[in-house]
């Protein structure tokens, strides 16, 4: 589909994507860097997300440093509001993919505060979220509220793989889970 190709191409060009097979495992000192892509369709909306991460080899902390998002939801009515919605989607899904997990004991939920249910805070927030809006005035507007949420965790998982060579298949992608693979 030309619309599918357009969002993937737009994101790849903006992110300076370099085709490759397998993980790059680029390292600068103790920091591993990686880039991952994911794509999703939700209704008439198409979204491609490229995530760039830094992984601290000693702590296994993942920082989702940069995102490039190409977004096509048909006709765009309010581009400024759409950009804010997409940014919110990216930050929320980064938090869910890297930090958020409800924990239980035998009887109850044990995630009851910000210590036991952490979220991304300002020091963990992405440095950059670059958004490319692709307008199709001939197509009625589709949903934009959660469309960028779908591919974000997959793009992060692919970027972590590119940085480390480790496939994490269970979110959140915590330092504990990553350390197990790095060991």
Keywords:
single chain, 183 residues, alpha+beta, five-stranded mixed beta sheet, 4 helices
Description:
The chain has 183 residues and is an alpha+beta fold. It is 32% helix and 24% strand. The chain contains four helices and five strands, in the order αββββαβαα. It has helices spanning 2-15, 79-98, 149-164, 175-182, and strands at 26-28, 31-42, 45-56, 62-72, 128-133. A five-stranded mixed beta sheet has the order 1-2-3-4-5. The N and C termini lie far apart (42 Å). The mean pLDDT is 93.
List the helices and strands and how they pair.
Blueprint: H1 2-15, E1 26-28, E2 31-42, E3 45-56, E4 62-72, H2 79-98, E5 128-133, H3 149-164, H4 175-182
Parallel strand pairs: 4-5
Antiparallel strand pairs: 1-2, 2-3, 3-4
Helix pairs in contact: 2-3
Please describe the biggest sheet, giving its number of strands, its sense, and whether it closes into a barrel.
5 strands, mixed
C-alpha Rg, in Å? 17 Å
Gap between N and C termini, in Å? 42 Å
Helix proportion: 25-40%
Quick structural summary:
α2 (79-98) crosses α3 (149-164).
